[in-house]
Design goal:
alpha/beta; six-stranded mixed beta barrel; globular
Amino acid sequence: MAIGVSQQINFLYYIATFLVILGWSTSSFPSSSFMPFVAAQSGSALGNATFYTPPYVPSSCFGFDKNQFPDGNLFAAASEYLWNNRKACGKHFRVSCVGGTNAGVAKPCKPGSVIVKIVDKCPSPGCQGTLDLSAEAFNTIANPDAGKVMISYSE
């Protein structure tokens, strides 16, 4: 029985995740920052997170409105996949770090999760993650020195 391309990509992603857990480098594996993955848990998906720093305005969703940012500056920019022609604006996602994407930081993840509000679009082709978190949101779930981490996220 043949399997589809998305199933093959998901299989490769799970292998890469397993190797990261074992402490192996996955730099030779293909990256899929913009592609959704099979749920890690019921109702969640796997992807990558990066972070950006101020200035945070104007945002693609709410322009210069200072009230767009939730307490603690826990917000994010959505990748093209999640952006969905501005339908992501104002949505909230629970994000947890599940592993590193490089050998630079041995244990990049912090315990727990963060809930972020989508206020912006992470522009292509420069967008390197499924979610581009505010610096404060990224620091809640991961060591900023990692720069990019694997995440589990759900709406």
